[in-house]
Amino acid sequence: MEYEINPTNPEEGNKVIPFPGAQQEGNTAAEPEAATATAQPEADPGIREVFQLKEGEDITEEQYKQIGKLVATVRDNVRIMQDIWFSTMREYGLKDEQMKALYQFNQQNRDPMPDGLTAEQKAQWDFSNGIQKMTQEDMDKIFEPGHPIWGVDMTQTIDRVKQTFDEFVQWMSSVQELRKVTDAYAELGELYEEQQFAELRKIAEAETDPEKKATKLKAIDDYMDNKTLAFMAAPQKEEDINRILHALTDTRKVEYWLKRTGDKLKQVKIAGTFVPEIYGFEKMLDEKYHKCKDIILLYFMQLIIYCDCHDPKSERRMQVLYFFRTMDAYIQNRLAPSVKEKTTQNLYAFLDQFIDKIPDGVNGATALQK
Question: How far apart are the first and last CA of the chain?
């Protein structure tokens, strides 16, 4: 996804810092449960609260553009913080496991913020104060003798460790802020689009020329059908259904599909993390459909590997892109309620074509359970 920035050493490849409790998906940013040492975790605010929009009012075009600029500014700030952190990381030769150890030490030893502080005092509270309690013995467990982080004495060493840790935490906090703002902006985009299409439908309904009216309404309906994955609800070819059902127990075939899917995802510029994102998606649906585990993922793999990704007029390519956009928004809970409801109905209609044909004892694709 566009907002995800890989928290890796750019000189060491794709290694995600494995914080305890962090959600790790391929190359996406690891997010420690309380790693934002500059702020305590809070419940996610609604999109209108994030962007200070009045409840019940329509979103104007100008507001939407201005919010887009705000998101771009936040993204730029993240890149600045990333540059600062990567520079420090290279200067002191810091490794993932060392930052993980510092994070854990701080979590176990920091003083909690006391009650009764003013807003200004809360803003200035040092959530990484546990680092200052490190002893020579604590340091020896993390940094080997001669490591660049060591100073002429323990005072200088702790100052260096504290500074580098604070820079790391500030960067991680900025990544989390970007995620929050970008997710909210994507959700806002769904609502704005729904609002715009309601206006377009009014215009189409008011058209006096019957032929033009029918053309306009069909264009609107076709778009919404694609967005809600109506092409999945349509009767699938028997050969495609059988191919997917057979793949549930054909390890070699699915391993081949996974490789081909990865290649095709690059061609349409979709992150490889999308595959694990939709793995086991059926668990989000009604319990009846849990036995259809991996059917939707196998469908997508079959859809994309037989797609001409370089042909902008290809129907399969269009379906791949609609599937990605809608399923990603569904999983992230960003779809407008009416769109989510219709999409869910279409997914049920799709799975209904498989549910009674799945062999007894089969619980998902064998190759995906390794």
Answer: 26
d(CA 234, CA 299): 13
Is the separation of the CB atoms in 162 and 131 below 8 Å? yes
Report residue 59's pLDDT band, with 50, 70 and 90 as the boundaries. confident
The set of residues, in sequence order, having a beta carbon less than 8 Å from that of 14 and lying 6+ positions away, is 6, 8, 26, 27
pLDDT tens for 157-180 read 999 999 999 999 999 888 888 888
- Pick the residue with more confidence: 13 or 329? 329
Whose tokens are 């003798």? That residue is 145
What is 285-345 written as a DSSP string? S-GGGGGGTTHHHHHHHHHHHTS-TT-TT-HHHHHHHHHHHHHHHHHTT-S-HHHHHHHHH
Q: Counting every residue, how long is the chain?
A: 370
Interval 337-348: pLDDT, tens: 889 999 999 999
Please list, in sequence order, all residues whose beta carbon lies within 8 angstroms of the beta carbon of residue 91, skipping any fewer than 6 positions away: 148
Query: What six digits make up the tokens of 318?
Result: 């269009």
Q: What is the pLDDT of residues 350-362, one digit of tens each?
A: 999 999 999 888 8
Give every CB contact of residue 68 below 8 A, 6+ residues apart in sequence. 185
Residue 33, SS3 per DSSP = coil
- Three state DSSP letters for 52-113: CCCCCCCCCHHHHHHHHHHHHHHHHHHHHHHHHHHHHHHHHCCCHHHHHHHHHHHHHHCCCC
Give the Cβ contact number of residue 173 at 10 Å: 18
The DSSP code sequence of 250-261 is -HHHHHHHHHHH
> Tens of pLDDT along 15-34?
233 333 233 333 333 333 33
- CA-derived radius of gyration, the chain: 25
Other CB atoms within 10 Å distance of the CB of residue 101: 15
| Exposure letters 333-346 (e unless 16+ CB within 10 A, then b) | ebbbeebbebbbeb
Task: Fill in the amino acid letter for 303.
Answer: L
Whether residue 217 contacts residue 103, with contact meaning beta carbons closer than 8 Å, is answered with no
pTM for the model: 0.62
> What pLDDT sits at residue 18?
30
